[in-house]
Amino acid sequence: MSIDENSPTPLYRQVEEAILQLIDNGEYKPGTKIPTEGELCERFGVSRVTVRKALGPLADKGVLERRTGKGTFVAEKRLSRSLSTVMSFSDMCRMQGCHPGARTLRLDLTEPEDDDLKRLRLSDDTEHILLLQRLRYADSMPVMIETTKFPESFIFLMDEDLDDSSLYELLAKHDIRMTSSRKMLDIKLANYKESKYLKVPDRHPLLRIDSAAESADGRFVHLTHQLCVADRFKLYI
């Protein structure tokens, strides 16, 4: 990858674009350290000042992360997620060029808690609700533990293959479509089990999102408790 000194494009901009290309083609992978300024100078045949001018915008855009005393690293890819719209995790991944995945951790009928009855608007004598827990992936990286509770009438989901599938697409097959949801957000620290599933250190910060989703006919269809790896998501309203 050569730098053209006769090009009208400034040298630092050419170096910036070259580094982006190296990230895109996988030579510099997310989470890995890039060569030192001196090594980049040698590779591109430019001055240290030029390299620094090229790295600055990449760091400002969040493409690179500078870590004091350690060097410069390619930032992990983050998923952008809106809190004000209803969208499946699978659709969110596809829109951002990621391949969605899921692994079922638990699927069974369980006794409802008082809050479940209230938020799903079920009668007090309801004996069971359906609980589904899945580990969600983006490009094979675990990013979320998702626990969803349904009224027992959704027991038909037990006959579906819920691995690597979109829950909302499965519900749409039964003419059930989500139109709105109410969300609450806070932060928790990963416990031992969560850290193992999500491949993060113990007590790593997680975004906790609790939501209640409503269908087009006004029914509260499910309650969802999501634990997202905080540094793998960007949230906006």
Topology:
Layout: H1 11-24, H2 37-44, H3 48-60, E1 64-67, E2 71-74, E3 79-82, H4 89-95, E4 100-110, H5 114-119, E5 129-138, E6 141-151, H6 167-172, E7 178-189, H7 192-198, E8 205-215, E9 220-229, E10 233-236
Parallel strand pairs: 3-10
Antiparallel strand pairs: 1-2, 4-5, 5-6, 6-9, 7-8, 8-9
Helix pairs in contact: 1-3, 2-3
Task: Describe the structure in your own words.
The chain has 237 residues and is α+β, with helices and mostly antiparallel strands. It folds into 2 domains: 11-74, Winged helix-like DNA-binding domain superfamily/Winged helix DNA-binding domain (Arc Repressor Mutant, subunit A, Orthogonal Bundle); 79-236, Chorismate lyase-like (Chorismate lyase). The protein has 7 helices and 10 strands. The chain has helices at residues 11-24, 37-44, 48-60, 89-95, 114-119, 167-172, 192-198, and strands at 64-67, 71-74, 79-82, 100-110, 129-138, 141-151, 178-189, 205-215, 220-229, 233-236. A 6-stranded antiparallel sheet has the order 4-5-6-9-8-7. Helix 1 crosses helix 3. It is elongated. The two termini are 40 Å apart. The model has no long low-confidence stretch (mean pLDDT 89).
Compose a concise summary of this entry.
Helices cover 26% and strands 34% of the residues. It has helices spanning 11-24, 37-44, 48-60, 89-95, 114-119, 167-172, 192-198, and strands spanning 64-67, 71-74, 79-82, 100-110, 129-138, 141-151, 178-189, 205-215, 220-229, 233-236. The mean pLDDT is 89.
